Amino acid sequence: MNSFFSLFSRDLAIDLGTANTLVFARNKGIVVNEPSIVAINKNTNEVEAVGKEAKEMLGRTPGNIVAVRPMRDGVIADFKVTERMLEYFIHKAHNRKMLVRPRIVIGVPSEITPVEKRAVQDSAYRAKASEVHLVEQAMMAAIGAGLPITEPSGNMIVDIGGGTTDIAVISLSGIVYSRSVRVAGNEMDDAIMHYLKRKFNLLVGERTAEQIKMEIGSAFSLDKPLSMEVKGRDLIEGIPKTITVVDEEIREALAECVDTIVNAIRVALERTPPELSADISDRGIVLTGGGALLRNLDRRIREETGLPVSIGDDPLTSVVLGTGKLLSDFKLLRKVSLD
Is residue 287 over pLDDT 60? Predict the structure, then answer.
């Protein structure tokens, strides 16, 4: 009987992110990597689309359909919608098999409150999980980036996601210092939208702002200037308008967000025990998460701290890969889980 049930308890690791949700299935690798967005029909309260299809609808839906981001700042903002989104992704990971009740490991921000923790667990249980373990995203990012977290030496990781930037100093499988600031990718998109509105009276949506950030955004001056044509709506005349923006302007728009992240790293360094500080000055700081891909962010942090800075091999998937490794190492899971 047990072997029959073990067929159906296919373990999953989930990086439940503000921008994207990634699901890692044991023995299969990453099976889902989609935006954390759900499109809901307000008239029927039915889910119209989840993930990529729902993202396509952002800013383009008719009045009765709303595209909702149920995660905000790395935690659940809309309980019911998160549950439905999780259910959809779990079914997708198991090829729509209804009988599956997987054990699930979920990465959460380091400064999550007990209430928020409970909300994540309840959502996973309602989405038919048999067991739920919560782990800190920064720790998972460090494991995913291949840092030697079990050794008695200091490792510093900065995971810049969609809703939060998690900074942690790790030694002997434990977190010596951790801090989570609610400034990350989404905040950068908002900063670009506000800047264009203020400077050019141009209204753009979040998809356009994200595109600008990815194409010409930077944290430190570039060797070769970049520019981009941006289409939006003129706030004064109310008609479509196209302008050209340059990297310097977008750098100015992102300055406050980047400063917040850099300052949080400085505070972390100040609060690190001296023995571990010496290790960090040798090994440097490792950046992961989508925000690590912002041009010259590593260079900016290097200039400000004087420490070596490197970007993880696959920054976008570090958290889910680290969480995935715990599926086959329950001894380590017991050490690092928040339960």
Answer: yes
DSSP, residue by residue, 252-278: HHHHHHHHHHHHHHHHHHHTS-HHHHH
| C-alpha closest to that of 46 among 86, 96, 89, 80 | 80
pLDDT tens, position by position, 174-219: 899 999 899 999 999 999 999 999 999 999 998 899 999 999 999 9
- The CATH H-level (homologous superfamily) assignment of domain 148-312 is ATPase, nucleotide binding domain (3.30.420.40)
pTM score above 0.90: no
The mean per-residue pLDDT over the stretch 44-52 comes to 89
HSE-CB for 52 with a 13 A CA cutoff: 5
CB-based contacts of 210: which residues, under 8 Å, 6+ apart? 185, 189
What CATH topology corresponds to 2-139+319-336? Nucleotidyltransferase; domain 5 (3.30.420)
Taking CA atoms, 136 is separated from 16, 148, 302, 338, in Å, by: 11, 16, 25, 7
